[in-house]
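Schema walk-through. Below, the input block comes first and the output block second. Nothing else is stored per chain. Lengths vary across the set, and this one has 298 residues.
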Amino acid sequence: MFDTHCHLNFSSFKKTLDEVISKARTVGVEKMLIPSTKLKNSIKAVEIAEKYEGVYAAVGIHPHHIYDIKVELNKFLPQVNSSRNQRDSDIHLRKNLLNSTLLEIEKLLNHKKVVAIGEVGLDRHEYEKTVYPDYKVSVDFMELQKKLLTEQIKLAIKYDKSLILHNREAGEEMLKIMNESWDEKLASRTVFHCCEPNLELLSYAKEHQIYLGVDGDVTFSSEKQEFVKLIPLEMLVVETDSPLLLPEPLRSQKLYPNKPENLVLIIDTIASLLNIGRKELIDQTIQNSNKLFNLPKD
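--- output ---
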C-alpha cells in the first residue's frame, strides 16, 4: 500500500517515528509521502525522507499557515502618514519577505527525495482551534493565499514536481487559479488531497487527469461514501492524513494520533463500497500513486 499523505513531520510522531514507520510496513504500507505545511516542517520532511527507504517528501506552505507570513508582512505595511521613502522601503521589505520564503522552499526542490510541492491551496474555513489567536479569513488574507498558491504552482511546473492541493470551502476560487496556472506538465501529476464531495471538482479532475485523495472520513461520512463511488478507479489514491482524520472504529474510541498503519481501514472501506477485492484496489492505487509522484513501478 502507498499512504500518499501522512504528516510524519508533525510533533505527534517526534518520539515514535521509527515505531510508526515499522508498524506501517508490518501491515503492508511500503511507501509513504510526507507533505508539509510550513518551511520548518518542510525541512523536517526532507530529513525524514532521507533516513527511510520508501518514504518521500513534499515541501510547501499550507494556506492556513500563510497567516504566519501575513502577520510578518503586516509589520511592514506602508503607513499613510509616513514619508515616501519610508513607504517605498516598507513595500520593498514586504516583497523581500515573500520572495525569501518562496526561495527557501525552492532550495529544497533539488533534493532527490522531494517529489512534490504540497500541501498548498486555498482555505476559507474559520477555525475554532488554531495557533493564531486573532485568525480571520479576510480579503487581504485570501489574496495572499492566492498569490502563494500561484507561485507554488509555478515552482511545481518549473522543477517538474507533482502538486498536492488543499481546498477547503474555496472550490470555485481554486478552479479559477488552476485554469489560470494550468500547464500540461500537471496532468497526471496533481492530486486534490482529501477531496471535498464536490461534483465540480470531480468534473475538473476528470478533464485534467487529476487524482483524488480519499481519507479516513470515508469510513464515517455517508456523503463521502457516495462521492467515492463516482471516482474512476484509475483516478483514486488513498491517504491517512496522519495524525489527523482518524478512521472508524478508531475515531469513536478517540485513539489518536492517526497513523499510516490505519490505511488498511480506508482500503477495506473503499473496496467494500466499490464491491471490488482488496488486492485489486491496492494494486490500482499503488499504480496511480507511483504515476502521480513519478516514481518507478514496483
